[in-house]
Every structure is written in structure tokens, then in C-alpha cells.
Amino acid sequence: MSLDDLDAFTVEVPSWAYGNSGTRFKVFTTPGVPRDPFEKIADAAQVHRHTGLAPRVSLHIPWDMVDDFGRLAAYAKEQGVGIGAVNANLFQDDDYRLGSLAHPHAGVRDKAVEHHLACIDVMRATGSKDLKIWLPDGTNYAGQDSLRARQDRLAESLQRVYAAMDDDQRLLLEYKFFEPYFYSMDIPDWGTSLLHCLALGERAQVVLDTGHHAPGTNIEFIVMQLLRQNRLGAFDFNSRFYADDDLIVGSADPFQLFRIMTEIVAVGAHRPASGVNFMLDQCHNIEDKIPGQIRSVLNVEQALAKALLVDAEALRAAQSSGDVLGAHAVLMDAYETDVRATLADRREARGLPRDPIAAFAASGYAAAVASSRVGGTQAGWGA
Ligand code: LRH
Ligand code: MN
Ligand code: MN
């Protein structure tokens, strides 16, 4: 396939990547971090300005609550970006100790559904088309609640949210195998997410967060299977060694990212028409945030470029003749190609800097915001 497909490829960046973040042990602060959602968008726009790859920013509600979302969307447009997925945040409210959409009490479930309805209004005000639900629901002890009743309650709550959505909006359902609960999660895996999506309807699709699997999971298999069912709605890209580490995508295992992109390219799902939203879900605890995001979108682009270089015809021929090593070599040839200079040339040809990280450093933006912004906020995550 041709590298020209890279021109239309985009990666969505998360607003929360630009705030201070950390672990439960320590949040290190960075001078000049955003004080409000407008400043998060201004920072995100820097990533797009220097890479041409990141024209949308995901919001998290209520982390990104503002009085006037129309104004936020207009501001984003002025900055050269748009609003992407709206994430419904259900994990920082005392009422949700026993869950949200699957909570045993109808009153709490109602409150969680209402929150989604408010998020749908944010989507209408900002032009966002994706409502992303990650459910922080589960149990900590065997017997704490009925696993089955929780699924039934969840299905009913999701149905209420789905019914309230407009015809051109999608519900993106994310799964995670553990945390914040440690015995059971109500959407622990892609199968559970897919079953709920199938029950809801065509506009419900699965989100695959690369950090949300047990060690050793073959993620590219899941990608392939969801694509086969036309239910891969989006990625939350990040990198993990141990658990949900949320580090820079493609840093720990660039080969895994390539293998994922190879499944994507095999069916043309990298093209915008496929509807797969390639998002980042990351935090930058010790490194600078804007360069961290620039590096991340470049890593995704690089993995896609290598996947586009796979000689599909040679691969098919080797596979059908049972040439095990030959088929493997076709993939490895693509993966081992150094595409950095080619991608820099392509950027230059589009009027973008050859080296986006160097261009950002030279722009003076970081120093300017460090002196103009005092008292930046926390991302709200990992504190
Ligand atoms: C949960 C998660 C989910 C949240 C985000 C902040 O671990 O991946 O996508 O919205 O982190
Ligand atoms: Mn996620
Ligand atoms: Mn996560």
C-alpha cells in the first residue's frame, strides 16, 4: 500500500495529557501546565501545529467542565483543532463506591445515566460524535454482588444512554480487566464489551485501550476480530510494562504497535472512512507533556508507515504456499525499514517541520506559558 495514505491519517489527543499527573505516591508539577480546558486545548493545538497529525482533542467530563461548551469548541477551532470524543467520567464521585451504571441501587444508576445525558449535550454543543464510556464498575470480593445481576443492570442503563443519542453519534464502550476493582470488573474484556454493543445497536462500538489487557495478551488478534465484526470504534493508545501504565505509545514495544497497525492496514481501517478513531490515552508524569504527545503521535504514524510497507502480495503468496519463514520475513522486512527520513521528507513537503520536537523546542512556547500561567491544574488522574 502507498505511504500517501498517511496524508489523511490522524490521531486524537487527550486533554488530560497536558495537566499535571502522577501516581498515588507523587504528582510532580511542571511549570506552565494548563489552568483550565481552554489552555489544555491551546497546548494540544501545539501538537497539531508541529506534526499535522493531531487535529482533535478528547474531553473528559467533569474534568473539562466549562460554562459554555460552544465557546470552547469555537476556541478550539481558532487554535486549528476540533473537539473529539467526550469521555463520561464516573470514577470520582462518592456515590459510585459500589458502581455507577451497574450499581445495585436504581437511584445511583439514574444519576450515572443523567451524567451521560449531560455528556450528550456537551457533544451537541461541541460537534463531537463519539461518547466514550469506560465503566469503573466492579467488585472487590467474591459474593459482594451478583455478577449476573450487575450485567443485567448495566445492559439496561446502557440502553437508556444509547436511546438518548442522536443518529449521527456513536457510543464507544471501553473494557479493562482490573482496576479500580480487583475481583471482578463489569466490562473486563472485549467479548463483554462486544456483547453489550451488539445488544445496543450498530452505533455502539468497542474501544480498545492497549493498556487494559493481561500480560501476554495477543492484542492484534482482538483488533482483527473486532474489525471482522465491524465493531472496532476506537483505540486508546498507550504503552504498558506492568499494568495500566499509560506511558508513551510505542515506547515499550514498538513491534506490538506495528503488529496492531498491520491488522488495521490489512483491511484499510487506517483510512478515515473506516470510522476507527485512533486516540491516545496517556499521561506524562516525569517528561514534558507537549513533546511527549508529539513523540506519541509520531510513534503511531511511524508504526502505520511500516505497516503500509508490508508487501501484501508477497505475504499472501508465502502464506498460501506454507512458507512459514518467508511470510514472517515479509513482515519483518517492513518492520525493520527505517522510515524516519522518508517521514521527515513528507512532512517538509507539506510545510511541516522535519523534526517536530526540535521545532516545538525552538518555538519558545514552553517558556512563554511557564511565565504566563501560574498555578496550573492537575489532570485529575492518578493523584
Ligand atoms: C481508565 C482509562 C479510561 C479513562 C482514562 C482516564 O483506565 O483508560 O479510558 O477515561 O483512563
Ligand atoms: Mn482508556
Ligand atoms: Mn486506562
Automatic annotation (TrEMBL):
<keyword id="KW-0413">Isomerase</keyword>
<keyword id="KW-0684">Rhamnose metabolism</keyword>
<dbReference type="GO" id="GO:0019324">
    <property type="term" value="P:L-lyxose metabolic process"/>
</dbReference>
<keyword id="KW-0464">Manganese</keyword>
<keyword id="KW-0479">Metal-binding</keyword>
<dbReference type="InterPro" id="IPR009308">
    <property type="entry name" value="Rhamnose_isomerase"/>
</dbReference>
<dbReference type="Pfam" id="PF06134">
    <property type="entry name" value="RhaA"/>
</dbReference>
<dbReference type="InterPro" id="IPR036237">
    <property type="entry name" value="Xyl_isomerase-like_sf"/>
</dbReference>
<dbReference type="InterPro" id="IPR013457">
    <property type="entry name" value="Rhamnose_iso-rel"/>
</dbReference>
<protein>
    <submittedName>
        <fullName>L-rhamnose isomerase</fullName>
    </submittedName>
</protein>
<dbReference type="GO" id="GO:0019301">
    <property type="term" value="P:rhamnose catabolic process"/>
</dbReference>
<dbReference type="GO" id="GO:0008740">
    <property type="term" value="F:L-rhamnose isomerase activity"/>
</dbReference>
<keyword id="KW-0963">Cytoplasm</keyword>
<dbReference type="GO" id="GO:0030145">
    <property type="term" value="F:manganese ion binding"/>
</dbReference>
<dbReference type="InterPro" id="IPR050337">
    <property type="entry name" value="L-rhamnose_isomerase"/>
</dbReference>
